[in-house]
Amino acid sequence: MTRFLTWFNNLYPIWLVSLAVIAFFWPQTMLWFTTPWVIWSLSFSMLGMGLTLSIDDFKGIRRMPGTVSLGFISQYSVMPLAGWAVAKLLQLEPGLAVGIILVASCPGGMASNVISFLAGANVALSVVLTLASTLMSFIFTPLWCSWLAGAYVPVDVVGLCLSSLQMVVAPVLIGVLIRWKSPKVANSIGAFGPTIAVVAFTLVSGGIVAASADAIASNFGRLAMAALLLHVIGFGVGYWVTRALGYSEIIARTVSIEVGMQNGGMASGLAKKHFPAMPLAAAACVFSGVMQNILGGLIASWWKRRPVMESK
Hints:
This protein is an all-alpha fold and 312 residues long. It has a domain at 67-166 and 194-304: Up-down Bundle (Na+/H+ antiporter like fold).
């Protein structure tokens, strides 16, 4: 079973793209996956993430404060500003701009941990960076959205904050609490955590693509270009800034992956809930999720064939 789940999780980009294509050409197959399903799927995937974490992961933040601070600051500076810059450069319409800025303002997701593993990067550091950015997302995601997306549409900062707490932070902490109090239960359920996340975001993507198929068809080129630019900037700047500051190659690769990959499921859920009049906002989040996984998979393959002979 473990081998099958690992195989299934590693093919995450294929499931994601495949269902998105099906939902685009045959929307009726996924139109049933509406906002309540999106929110609950995201919450369960974050619970699954929490079940895979332990108190030692929190202690890891203390053990490597420099690299964690670097990754955290890069996550919540490089990406939001890159999202704003891409929206301005491509002169995106409000819906697309809000979606790109929203996904750029979100924390890293579990996909970054999978890509770090496939790339032979520092998985422990990746997990700690994801944990740190996720736990603080209820503050930084609403603030960045207010500052950068507020020029396009009124942003409910308090609402975004509460939604982030309910859909992301609380489920993660509940999962950690279960592992702390009942490790056997957490182990039996937590083994399915990454798979739950894979299935959840794949379904979320399919549902949003189905609901926005016409809008996506009319804006396909700009959606693809915006998502591509956003994540290329994230991967590139995350890597070169880390190297410029004197950190090792393996740390630079890990930070690059963490900065370049966002929690697309969280962004999609927030877009569906808080910007329902802008279907392109959620569509941009989905496009971002697809694009980051394609780029992440290519980068992982490249780096896997060029291992770094140093301590991780």
